[in-house]
## 1
Amino acid sequence: MLEPDQETEQYPRIERWGSAVAHGSVAFVGIPITIILLNLPWSLLGCPVLSYMIARSFRRRGRVWGAYQGMQASVIQLLLLVCAVTAHLTSGFQVISNVFSFGAFLLFVYSMWAALDTWLGDDFDYIGISKLLGYVSAKNMGRPEVRRRWVTMGQNKTDDKGGMPR
């Protein structure tokens, strides 16, 4: 067993924090937006987007573990959003609404577990989606990233319209 001063960090701190924020985006983003602005299912719309943006930023930097954890988080946040919206839309049918609400709650607790594990630097694999997302993440890391110029300040070049791989 390692002594407290002999801790080894397998993954950099930025990857651990980014992955924890991606997994816990419902707690860090969705719930505060619910309290301040919107009603519940619609306040969760930004959570999968935030997780995906974190995964993309890690992919651009070549950080495999962070990109994989962010991709897993975005899929789970999307499933949680689908459960919450379905529970809201089926509110007339109490049993169906309760089933989807309970499913969203279980996914929320599961994602908080993932946020804690990744913050501590442990690998976290969601049941059922980890193999597929591991394959997708590995393929994405092998692809060249296309640089797109969103704001060109009038400096459009005819030879750079399609984007250049990095």
Note: Residues 11-138 form one domain.
## 2
Amino acid sequence: MSDEKRYQVVINDEEQYSIWPAEQQPPAGWRADGTVGTQTECVEHIDQV
């Protein structure tokens, strides 16, 4: 069992990406892109898009 926190990749209307805790709704003006993982996995995903 891993204690590593889970994150989601979020994107805004200007197509800027960020990560946000997976258990929280994205902040206003941002939407989830469907990617969930560790912080490292999410940052790697952002680097690829």
Note: The first strand starts at residue 7 and ends at 12.
